[in-house]
Structures are given as C-alpha cells and as structure tokens.
Amino acid sequence: AVTIASSDATKLQFSATPTSAPAASLTVSVPAGLSSTPDFYIQGRAKTGNVSYSATATGFGLSGRQCSST
Fold it and tell me: For the chain, percent helix, then strand, then coil, each to nearest 5?
C-alpha cells in the first residue's frame, strides 16, 4: 500500500474517485505485479500558496514534493 499525505489539508486533499470525499491522506493498494498506484485525485483547496505532499510505502521510504498555486 502507498499512503499519499498533504502537509496542509486546508490547501490540498486527495480522493480515490472524482466523487468521493477528499481527505488529507489517502492509502491506495498496488496490485501484485504492478509498479504504479491506481489513479487517484488531487483537489486544491486554496487559491494561492505552497503546500507539500508525500508518498510512503513500506520498504520504500518517503518521497516528498511541493506544489504551488498563484
């Protein structure tokens, strides 16, 4: 499983489908034999600013990025 998490849920949230409620973090399963996550959706909640997000998976550590809105 991979967990994607926002550093600030007032600015950035995630959901598994376009119609499901967004949240500060989302855990998705990577099926055996595949090397990528299934699709997920990112929702910007602020008109401007910076926010960081991270992805973690057991045995793979942490990867982080930042996105901006202006």
Answer: 0, 50, 50
